[in-house]
Design brief:
7% helix; mainly beta; 55% strand; six-stranded antiparallel β-sheet; globular; 2 helices
Length: 210
Amino acid sequence: MNVLSSNEKFNNRPCYKLEVEGRTTGAFDKMLRIRDTWGCLMDTSMYVTYKNYRRIEEGNYRRNEEISLDYPTKKASMLVEGDKPKELTLPGYVYDMVSGYYFLRLLDYDNMKEGQVIAMNGMLEDKFYNFKIRYNGKDRIKTKYGKANVIYLAPIMPENKLFDGENAIKFYISDDANRIPLKIRAELYVGAVELDIKGYSNLRHPLNIH
């Protein structure tokens, strides 16, 4: 997960360019090769998506997708490789999976109750959802660097072709000023994927792991 740039522009609005890459390793890579890239341009003050893209390689499945969002007209233009352009109608300001995570970093979890649900407009492919994330309290997990206090979030997933069930994703972010992801577990229709922190750099604050 990278902040590639903080000086991007979209329709003269300043944006962050954010990108997440995921890939399988080891024996699982031989069973189901995954090379996924998810990215977006996100407004630096409103934290909403102006453009998002996905480059998906999962086994024999391929999808190259780019969506540009125009909030004044409430329209979005979707380009999928091999298909005709498609126009979408926006329900308002929306977050894709990447910008949604960065928005969640800003929330005050110290004053939330365990089980509280956070609602936001989300998008996946050409569908828009009233996306909900459940705050499951705080926990402590093991990482490569030691034990860490974490914030435990569980997106309530809408029905889709990738994730298996509404509680398919468990998301653990550091309970410190960085709020970086330390572990993610996702239940897929083809199995399960677990992501663990392997390295980090250029953090603004010391990572609270002991």
